[in-house]
Structures are given as structure tokens and as C-alpha cells.
Amino acid sequence: MKIVVTVKLVPDPNAVRRIDPTTKRLVRAGLETALNPFDEYAIEAALQLKERLGADTTVTVFTMAPESMKESLRKALAMGADDAVMLSDPALEGSDVSVTAYAMAQALKKTGFDLILSGALSDDGNTGGVPGALAEYLGVPGLTNVRKIEEIGDGRIKAQRETDSGYQVVSGPLPALVTVTMAIGEPRYASLKGIMGAKKKTISTLSAADCGIDRPAGSDGAKMEVVAIAAPRAREKAKIVEAADGPSGAQAIFDFLRERKLV
Amino acid sequence: MRDVIIFVEHSGGQTRKVTFELAAEARRLADALGGKAHALVAGSGSAALAQQLQNHPLDKIFHTEDPDVDKFLLDPVVDYLEAAAKVTGPAVILVPNTMLGRDVAGRIAARLDAGLASDVTELRVENGRVQCIAPKLQGSTITTCTFKAGDYGVITVRPNAFAAQPQATGAQLVPLEKPAGKTYGMAVESDVEEASGEIGLEEAAVVVSGGRGLGGPEPFETLLKPLAEALGGAVGASRAAADAGWVPYSLQIGQTGKIVSPQLYIAVGISGAIQHKVGMQTAGTIVAINRDGTVPIGETADLLVVGDLFQIIPALTTLVQQAKAAHT
User: Fold this and answer.
1) Which helix (H) or strand (E) holds B172?
2) For A240, phi and psi rounded to 5 degrees?
3) Shared-domain flag, residues B273 and B142
């Protein structure tokens, strides 16, 4: 089975991020790039499947990002993925959700897949729209928010997916796109052997033309435009009350809520 | 001129408050754009729900009871939304920013080759163009987006961001035909309810949320639930509590869980790391209870009470219950 894990390379989640007021894009200069933390769960899910299904299962990591970010993919390879493919093209810079999903779909049609895995959310944009749009452009079912893959094989998948109020058991044919939640299991650490081995693994690059991307891409093709950015309304600092005991703490809260007409 | 269509999320005809919020906002947008406001409701229970929606300021309510909508994941409902959009022509589609809503939005945007604006908390129309205002980068930046071409597209809207305004305007019920030539593969075999609360977390007016400070699963039941019930709200949790297995992930609030915007948010034993803050910082009033007065939640909260939550919460629950009893 050919598993492709789509990952997003995001600026270091622990760094302070800001938007350039002129370009209205994220300032990436000076920020380390890392795997979107949610996508590490997808890599974990893929590696679990590889262990379950045996040697003829391969795990390819796929990303759409500038080629300069290539080395950020080594971590995924060190965790145990077999190889990586990048869709890199200056023409794709400034792509929004729609263009990104379209371009990724074109590239994934080229690489081929039985199963696409990705994280349920991205750490920076937090739009959550790409997986749905990607499944649509690929014409495959989208099985989102999966917490456990119960069965896979013979061209079918059965999984538990989280819903707002609990979970569903869903089954259907492959190929499919699956997004996983953190309940799938903590991402493994790369072993020293894995880290050494990752250096020899292949990271290949595709251009927009290689994938037959024939419509306006990047910011030209984007459907959305950011017209303004602003700082959020500042909250006043909290009023701090030291509660000597339970009743006095409760009374302080109750009075505060009453003042604001919340009780 | 643009019409607006709202996607109605429901379970067997039971919908949530966000539907009525979207209906009111759709009306306002449609009026500003010189168009009409419509709703799409699909699946079992839709006929009754469509009638209920006639109490809201809509023009047409597209509906279908097609059982495939409940039997198969996502695809049928997206097909019906597409069918509704075919009737109206290019439209602005409003979808609740929920787990299902995000999936629907991504798919329908790709299907219609339209733009997608996410987690929008405010909508404006300037010179006939829709402006979508949304917090980004963990709430540190507020962006305003427009649809570049044609001015139609898909918008996911944060629950509790708009006020519902029930008003019967004689909305017409329009049954939809089953789209021809469709087959579906992803079958829903079973649906299990896990969260005990009847009120959806994202639409609750009050959320009482617990974190690491609770020390285990029991206090969620014995302390937080009674307080939430007394306040007419729902129970939530921090990532630490969900990761520890104390509560299901469906209760988790934060960047990796649900984003809530209630009138009142009570954070109990939650330190309030950025990951949690993203999920609740737009709440109207935030009260935190923590034994440490230096926790980051102090940056977000309106009131931070430093003390023992195990003593404060039961006492607070009693005060709220007494106030309610005196009121009725």
C-alpha cells in the first residue's frame, strides 16, 4: 500500500509570529521552520500502518513549500518515512486554501497513492479547509478526524472518527484521504539510527509544470485577498483576588458575575 | 446582487443555536448585497426543521429527507448544498465553524471553485463587497479578507459571534430533487454519543472548563458539571485534561480542540497556555480559579481568584443555585 502523508511546514510554533503590513503575509524571515505539530500525528499513524501491514507498504511524506525548507522534512524521514516529495515553485507563493488544495491534488495525482494521511488542523492558518478541498479535487472520499483505524486492506478502510458529541464508525473504499486527531497516538521520537538513515533518504522535487498545474496559481490564482490587518482589542488585565477560603472565593466570583449581570 | 445560503447542521432535525445566528446574519448580508437569504437543510428530520426555520428571516428553505445524507459521510450533503447553490446562482455560503462545518466548507469551496474564509467573527459589506473579519495567528492578528473575483464564496462562521433574531418572514419551503448519477462509498456504520452534556460546547452561553488542577476525571463530574448545570452551561476541558484521558477529546477547548466564544467562561485549574487561550479568548467574560496567582491565564482573564478550587467551586455552585431559586 502506498501511503502519502501530506505535511505543512510552519514557522516554529513557539516563536512570536507576525504579519507584514505591506504584503499582508506571514513574516517567515528569521523563523525556524518545523513540521506542523498536528501532521506529526499523521506521520505516526502512517508508521503504525506500515508496521501493521508489512514491508510492501511505503510511507512518502509530501509537502508544498519553497525548496529552501527541504531540510525540515528530515525529521519526518528520521521518524521512519521512506522518502519525501516536495512541490516547490515560486509561482505557488501566496496560494490560498483553494489554490493550495488544487496544486496539491495535481501533484498527488502524479505521485499516486492508496491512502493520504494528514493532520486535522494546521498550526498557523488554522483554516482546516485544505483536507476537504483536497479530497474534492482528488475525487476521493474524505474521512476526517479519525482517532483509530480499525481495519485496512483489500482496498477498504474502517475507522472511528470523532464527532462533536462522540464518535462514528465509518467504512468505505480506498483510495481515500484520512485526517487524524491527536488521539491516534503520540508521535514517536526519531532514533539515532533513524536520524542517520534519514540523511540518505531521497527528497525529490516537483515543479508546477511537472504536475500539469495549468491555471493561475499563487497569489494570482488565490480566491481570497487580505485587505487589512489589525491588532485585537486589548483585554484589561485581570482583577486578582486572593481567596482565604472557599466561601470567600465563591462570593468574590458571585459578586463579580452579578455586577456583570451574568447570574 | 448576491444571495446568501446558510448550511444547517443538525442531528435528526435537532439543530443548534448557531443555525439561527447564521439565519440572522444571512438576512443582514443579503439585504446589504441586494439579494435573498436562504437555508439548506438535508437528512432525516429536515422537513420538520425546515418548518421551524420559517420562524427566522429567510426567503427560501431548501430541504430533503434523503436517507443517504445520514447513511454516508459528507458527500451527499455537499451535493445538496451544491444543488441549492445551482438554484440561486453564485452565492455567499455561510457554514458554522464546527467539525462538520469545516469539512463541508472545504469541499463545497473546491466544488464551486470558490474562495474560503475561515472562523469569521464579523462580516461587513463595503461598496457592495463582503468583508470577512477573522482572528488569525492564535488571535494575535485580526485580518479582513475579501473574495477577489465575483464576490461569492464560502465562509465558516464562529458560533456565538452573531445574535439570532427570530422573525417569520414567510420563507418558502423548497424540496430538492436527489442529484442524479451519484454513488457514495463512505458509509456510517454507527454513531456513538460520548459527551454527557446536552448543550453543544461551541454554542453554550456559559462554559465551565477544567484543567490539570482537577487532578483526575471525578471532579469534572462532581464539581464542574453541577456548576455548569446551575449556570445553564456546558463543561469543557484543557488539552492536558483530555491528553490525560480524564475527559473525551470532544470536550477539549483550545487550538487543537474547539474554539468557543461564550458570554461567560470559567477556567478552573487551567494555567492558560497560548494553546488554550486561542480557544477561549473571545469569550465575553473570563473568570479563572487557580491556586497560583502568576499563571498565564491572568493575562486573558477578567477575574482571577487565587485559592483552592475544591472549596470554591461547590460554594459557588450553591450560591448560583440559591440565586436561581430566589429568582423563580
Assistant:
1) strand B172-175
2) -105, 125
3) no
- Helix then strand count (H, E) for chain B reads 11, 18
Same-domain pairing of B135 and B217: no
Is the domain of B11 the same as that of B136?
yes
In this structure, is residue B195 part of a structural domain?
no
Give me the domain span that covers residue B299: 201-327
Query: Do B312 and A253 lie within an 8 Å CB cutoff?
Result: yes
Same domain, B166 and B282: no
Give the residue from B141, B175, B209 where a domain finishes. B175
* Domain definitions of chain A by residue range: 2-221
Question: For residue B305, which residues of chain A lie inside 8 Å, CB to CB?
Answer: 240-241, 243, 249, 252-253
Of A163, A240, A263, the CB nearest to B304: A240
A56-110 residue pLDDT tens: 999 999 999 999 899 999 999 999 999 999 999 999 988 888 889 999 999 999 9
Task: Show the CA angle centred on residue B268, arms to residues B265 and B269, nearest 5°.
Answer: 145
Do B161 and B276 have their domain in common? no
Query: Domain for residue B181, yes or no?
Result: no
CATH level 2 (architecture), domain A2-221: 3-Layer(aba) Sandwich (3.40)
Q: Is residue B188 part of a domain?
A: no
> Which residues from B are below 8 Å from A99, CB to CB?
none
Chain A residue at shortest CA distance from B120: A127
Beta-bridge partners for A234: none
Chain A nearest CA to B26, separation (Å): 20
CA distance A100 to chain B (A): 11
> Tens place of pLDDT for every residue, chain B, 328 residues?
799 999 999 999 999 899 999 999 999 999 999 999 999 999 999 999 999 999 999 999 999 999 999 999 999 999 999 999 999 998 999 999 988 999 999 999 999 989 999 999 999 999 889 999 998 877 778 999 999 877 789 999 999 999 999 999 999 999 999 999 888 989 999 988 876 545 678 889 999 999 999 999 999 999 999 999 999 999 999 999 999 999 988 899 998 788 899 999 999 999 998 889 989 998 999 999 999 999 999 989 999 999 999 999 999 999 999 998 887 6
Burial class (CB in 10 A: 0-12, 13-18, 19+), B245: exposed
| CB contacts, 8 Å: B11 with chain A | 165
Report the run of H or E that residue A172 belongs to, with start and end: strand A166-173
Complete DSSP assignment for A220-245: HH-SEEEEEEEPPPPPPPPEEEE-SS
> Residues B22, B160: one domain?
yes
> Residue for cell digits 507498504?
A57
Statement to judge: residues B91 and B28 lie in one domain: yes
Looking up residue B30, the CATH number of its domain turns out to be 3.40.50.620
ipTM for this prediction:
0.87
Contacts of A183 in chain B (CB under 8 A): 249
- Judge if B93 and B137 occupy the same domain: yes
Record the pTM. 0.88
- The label of the residue with cell 482573564 reads B301
